[in-house]
């Protein structure tokens, strides 16, 4: 379960009750009145160990577990320190530099449902009494504060997709929910997506997961058996951007732990095999005005789409390539951003975005304006993203679009997979980056990304992703061997 806490500090409070701060001492003072009541709640719940977890450049949580006897020291910034530069792919510091200090955010406390003796508390990193400039969670907090200064509060829901796998008797990874023999004839069968039989086969794992998410109070709407065998999607309620980012990181931990109890493991790799449907993580983003809490700024008085929503789309489209470098951050991400693949059940169209445009309920566009809700859905995102940076870029681009009244042009309400290159050119529709290299080249030149991430984190992210591309580009794949070895 997530523990709810309150604060006595009133300045800089957002509509969800969170406090955004910049100085190390502000963070400590924010924690101080909460420590004793939170400790009492945790101990009453049986918590004996605390994992205060900061987020690295890839969006992966890191920690040093501490016993409850050190809880107060931890909350006051006197807990474990980290030589972050040695494990976080950040080249700007040396072994002679100061360590980073984490300060747990006592509004972000999760008791682990699979082990109630342990709690995870998400934390912010500080360095020499200031926010660490390669702390993604701090970057999101800065973006949230800037949006609040402009009069807006951001909200999001995310649709995480993943594949459940296991190891076979030969130690090879295979689909966990798959009752066909590994060898022999593989007959055509009903597609996995929405199928009742395969949903029933998945229920031992899904029941545990559903019960946990319901206990967390995330308002789970449904679980979807997706298009690839053993692939699932979760749909749960939206919340403010920082809490959604924390939830998604906690969900990645949770799913892996639940899967282990069923002899499985979870992969968030977007395309683990050629024939699979891509695993995405669509971001459904909306705004509220600070002076009109509870009212969706994307919805006009007549129930249609507001001018604010148009300008927000304009900002997102203007920075789409740079945003995609964050939301689709791996070489493998771009294997899924293609229009057609042969061998899919039910056809060859991937339903993945390939072009930078928007449309009303158009699932072939990068930005979809759904018919069922007033949000902007970015379909070019997957679970390998650093969700804090993704939310920060999304919010900042949308608010910039509004403040500068960036016109997105006319919506594209037609099947983009059926359009020709000539039609795209005539309509002024850009192609999404085709690979990681194109994406990071766009990120390199994007001034908003430099501002949101800060120059040091922007440089560090580019350095790692450039290295990732070079390492991939120097490898020789099975496809290349099969294609060229005997042909030439």
Task: Describe this entry's structure for a reader.
- With 488 residues, this protein is of the alpha+beta class.
- It has 2 domains: 2-132, Glutamine synthetase, N-terminal domain (Ubiquitin-like (UB roll), Roll), CATH 3.10.20; 149-484, Creatine Kinase, Chain A, domain 2 (2-Layer Sandwich).
- Helix content is 34%, strand content 20%.
- The chain has 14 helices and 20 strands.
- The chain has helices at 24-31, 35-44, 71-75, 136-149, 196-216, 241-260, 307-318, 320-327, 387-403, 421-427, 436-445, 447-453, 455-473, 478-484; strands at 2-3, 49-55, 61-63, 66-67, 81-82, 100-111, 118-127, 130-131, 152-167, 173-175, 220-225, 231-236, 239-240, 265-267, 281-289, 355-356, 358-360, 367-369, 376-378, 430-431.
- The strands form 3 sheets. Strands 9, 10, 11, 12, 13, 14, 15, 17, 18 and 19 form a 10-stranded mixed beta sheet that branches.
- The relative contact order is 0.12.
- Residues 3-17 have low confidence and may be disordered.
């Amino acid at each position: 379960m997530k523990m709810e806490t309150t604060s006595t500090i009133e300045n800089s409070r957002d509509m969800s009750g969170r406090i955004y701060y910049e100085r190390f001492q502000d963070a400590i003072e924010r924690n101080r009145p909460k420590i004793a009541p939170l400790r009492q709640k945790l101990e009453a719940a049986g918590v004996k160990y605390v994992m205060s977890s900061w987020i690295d450049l890839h969006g992966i949580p890191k920690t040093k577990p501490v016993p409850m006897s050190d809880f107060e020291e931890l909350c006051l910034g006197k807990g474990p320190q980290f030589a972050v530069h040695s494990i976080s792919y950040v080249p700007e510091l040396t072994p002679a530099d100061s360590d980073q200090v984490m300060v747990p955010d006592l509004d972000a406390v999760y008791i682990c449902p699979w082990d109630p003796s342990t709690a995870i508390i998400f934390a912010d990193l500080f360095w020499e009494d200031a926010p660490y400039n390669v702390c993604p969670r701090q970057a999101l907090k800065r973006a949230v504060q800037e949006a609040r200064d402009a009069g807006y509060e951001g909200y999001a829901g995310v649709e995480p997709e993943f594949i459940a796998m296991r190891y076979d008797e030969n130690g090879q990874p295979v689909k966990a929910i798959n009752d066909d023999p590994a060898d022999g004839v593989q007959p055509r069968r009903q597609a996995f997506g929405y199928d009742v039989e395969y949903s029933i086969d998945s229920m031992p794992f899904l029941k545990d997961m559903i019960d946990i998410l319901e206990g967390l109070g995330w308002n789970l709407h449904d679980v979807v058996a997706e298009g690839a065998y053993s692939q699932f999607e979760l749909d749960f309620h939206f919340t403010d951007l920082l809490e959604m980012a924390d939830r998604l990181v906690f969900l990645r931990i949770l799913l892996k732990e639940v899967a282990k109890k069923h002899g499985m493991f979870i992969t968030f790799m977007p395309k683990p095999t050629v024939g699979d449907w891509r695993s995405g993580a669509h971001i459904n983003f909306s705004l509220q005005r600070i002076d009109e809490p509870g009212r969706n700024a994307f919805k006009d008085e007549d129930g249609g789409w507001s001018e604010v929503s148009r300008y927000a789309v304009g900002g997102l489209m203007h920075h789409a390539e740079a945003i995609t470098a964050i939301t689709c951050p791996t070489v493998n991400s771009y294997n899924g951003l293609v229009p057609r693949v042969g061998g899919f059940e039910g056809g060859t169209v991937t339903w993945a975005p390939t072009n930078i445009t928007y449309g009303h309920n158009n699932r072939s566009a990068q930005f979809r304006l759904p018919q069922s809700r007033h949000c902007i859905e970015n379909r070019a995102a997957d679970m390998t993203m650093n969700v804090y940076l993704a939310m920060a870029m999304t919010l900042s681009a949308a608010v910039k679009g509004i403040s500068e009244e960036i016109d997105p042009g006319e919506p594209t309400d037609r099947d983009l997979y059926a359009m020709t290159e000539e039609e795209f050119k005539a309509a002024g529709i850009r192609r999404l980056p085709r690979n990681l290299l194109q994406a990071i080249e766009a990120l390199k030149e994007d001034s908003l990304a430099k501002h949101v991430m800060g120059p040091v984190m922007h440089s560090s992210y580019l350095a790692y992703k450039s290295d990732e591309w070079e390492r991939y580009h120097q490898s020789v794949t099975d496809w290349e061997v099969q294609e060229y070895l005997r042909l030439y």
